[in-house]
Amino acid sequence: MDELAQLDKVVEIAEELGVEVRREAIDGESGGLCRIKGRHVLFIDTLADATTRLERCIEALARLPGIDDYYLRPDIRERIDRIRSQPPT
Predict the structure, then answer these.
(1) How far is residue 77 from each of residues 13, 30, 64, measured CA to CA in Å?
(2) Quick check: 3 and 25 in contact, CB under 8 A?
(3) pLDDT of 43 strictly over 80
(4) Contact at 8 Å (CB) between 22 and 44?
(5) N or C: which end of the chain has fewer CB within 10 A?
(6) CA 7, CA 38: separation in Å to the nearest integer?
(7) Which SS3 state, helix, strand or coil, does residue 1 take?
(8) CA 54/CA 73 separation, integer angstroms
(9) Which phi and psi (to 5°) does residue 3 adopt?
């Protein structure tokens, strides 16, 4: 599965978990998950390349409550586990 297809799947999962997804031109390197008025919002930087957009979205999934109870493709689950195993920056 190519990166854009993976990105679509990750975004679909985030939306199923109740995350609002916003696609906006930021700076080409940004995006990610935040809380606005108590709701999770995932910003996808439309100026970023596909690899960066996918990484930011997977990083967001790793922080979502309930994601461990959700079926994920093994490659996406592995990337989430790798992100979680890294020390916080």
Answers:
(1) 12, 22, 13
(2) no
(3) yes
(4) yes
(5) C
(6) 25
(7) coil
(8) 14
(9) -65, -40
Per-domain residue ranges of the chain:
3-85
Helix (H) or strand (E) holding 22: strand 20-24
User: In which band, very low, low, confident or very high, does the pLDDT at 48 lie, cut at 50, 70 and 90?
Assistant: very high
* Whether the predicted pLDDT of 42 surpasses 90: yes
What distances in angstroms separate CA 7 from CA 17, 57, 61, 82, 87, one per listed residue?
A: 15, 7, 12, 17, 24
Q: Tokens for 59?
A: 């990083």
Nearest one of 66, 54, 62, 63 to 78, comparing CA atoms: 62
Architecture of domain 3-85: 2-Layer Sandwich (3.30)
Note the pLDDT of residue 12.
92
